Amino acid sequence: MTTPTAADVAAIVDHTLLKPETTTADINALVAEAAELGTYSICVSPSHLPVTAIEGTSVLVATVIGFPSGAVKSSVKAAEAAQAVVDGADEIDMVINLGAVKEANWDLVESDIRAVREAAPAPTVLKVIIESAALTDEEIVKSCEASERAGADFVKTSTGFHGAGGASVHAVSLMAKTVAPRLGVKASGGVRTGAAALEMIAAGATRLGLSGTKAVLDGVASGSSDEVSGDSSGY
């Protein structure tokens, strides 16, 4: 496979800003940078919707639901998702019910995802954050399978806020083996270098969630493995 260029990588990036202290000015700057870098979308908290600065650009808008714990009622996630669609979200990144995963309550895992899918039907894109670093391989596989049964479009590694860590090549590869090419795979959480981004793509990631996007893309262009500094969100 030909090594992706920086432009190729940018085209699959959700340029992300989910810090709780984020301001409207920060979001406007995020949009401007996304347009300059050529990223696929921005990913922001639902309180920042609608993103009026996006008008006149080709950048799409993603938002997060049940974030970051996933430990809220399915009805609340569904209501949050429905409002996000009304507010202009093109894509929904929802957090799975991790407690249900740990209890192997796959009916609840699936119904939780399905509630959001029904509240945000196609063409809205639904990504399911499984928090892969907190799961066993079996739990990763079963979470991906539940996501597919419930109608998700993507499975996603991480919120970037869990103490267990973020994306790994192993998790991305396992997720891709489980659901690709039927579903996309998004690698997010701790992808801070150009080399790491390329490793995730090689493992099967079809979307990347990045907060230090410019530095990662610069690393892809230069072949640098220097880590992006300064983002306390872990995203």
Task: Summarize this structure briefly.
With 235 residues, this protein is α/β, with parallel strands linked by helices.
Structural class: alpha/beta
CATH architecture: Alpha-Beta Barrel
pLDDT average, as an integer? Answer: 95
Number of beta-strand segments: 8
Note the beta-strand portion.
15-25%
Report the total helices: 9
Shape assignment: globular
Order of helices and strands: HEHEEHEHHEHEHEHEH
Q: What is the CATH superfamily label?
A: Aldolase class I
Order the strands across the largest sheet as they lie in space. Answer: 1-2-3-4-5-6-7-8
Radius of gyration (CA) equals: 16 Å
End-to-end separation in angstroms reads 27 Å
Give an account of the 3D structure.
The chain has 235 residues and is of the alpha/beta class. The protein has one domain: Aldolase class I (TIM Barrel, Alpha-Beta Barrel). It is built from 9 helices and 8 strands. It has an 8-stranded parallel barrel, surrounded by 6 helices. β6, α7 and β7 form a beta-alpha-beta unit. α5 crosses α6, α6 packs across α7 and α8 packs across α9. The two termini are 27 Å apart. Keywords: Cytoplasm, Lyase, Schiff base. Belongs to the DeoC/FbaB aldolase family. DeoC type 1 subfamily. This is Deoxyribose-phosphate aldolase. Pathway: Carbohydrate degradation; 2-deoxy-D-ribose 1-phosphate degradation; D-glyceraldehyde 3-phosphate and acetaldehyde from 2-deoxy-alpha-D-ribose 1-phosphate: step 2/2. It comes from Populibacterium corticicola.
